[in-house]
Amino acid sequence: MENNVFEQMAMRYDTEERKQLAKIIAEEVKSELQDSKSKSLIDYGSGTGLVSLELTDLVDTVLLVDSSKQMLEVAEGKISRKGVTNASVLYSDFTQETPKLEADIIFMSLVLLHIPDTINILQELYDILKVGGKLIIVDFDKHDKINHPKVHNGFVHEELEKQLSDVGFASTEIRTFYHGNRIFMNQDASMFISSSIK
To answer: What is the rounded distance in angstroms from the CA atom of residue 91 to the CA atom of residue 119?
Structure first.
């Protein structure tokens, strides 16, 4: 992942648009976290914690993982200001090296599109999950009008489902849940939520 871009964006990352989108995503993810009070959650590519810091009441612990130190500094500021006691941060990029971690739930919001090798990162996340654990991915549906050298132009449900199955996930459910104006590189786009069980 191109760190420097996100490092430069960190202080001004939490725009009103991003906050609104994060609220929509958090609401959708909450339905996947019923009965998760005793579970550990990793937010991979957490950024400033816009989504996962809305979920701390639903799980036992939240670990925000990001490859941008500045993003995590912003997240740490929020954690201490809000007095959140069950969230911590970890500076790491699993595409380079994966630390020894274990989690019941891994969550990725609008991160997969930034990772060139989809299969490799899905395998890393699969390996961190406990047996019976859940991988929740929120990302954009495939969008033909978007073409960028460093970003996937969204995902086709069937193709992603096959990739998840190939790395070992026992079951996956994917559905589109939101359509918004100019939310993906200034284009109108839809987002899906994918939930896979190891």
So the answer is: 22
Asked whether the whole model's pTM tops 0.90, one would answer: yes
Written as one letter, the residue type at 70 is Q
Q: Within 13 A of 62's CA, how many CA atoms are on the CB side?
A: 29
CA 43 vs. chain centroid, Å, equals 6
pLDDT in tens, 19-58: 999 999 999 999 999 999 999 999 999 999 999 999 999 9
DSSP string covering 55-100: SGGGSSEEEEEES-HHHHHHHHHHHHHHT-SSEEEEE--TTT---S
Count of beta carbons in the 10 Å neighbourhood of residue 50: 23
**Helix-strand-coil percent breakdown of the chain, rounded to 5?**
35, 30, 30
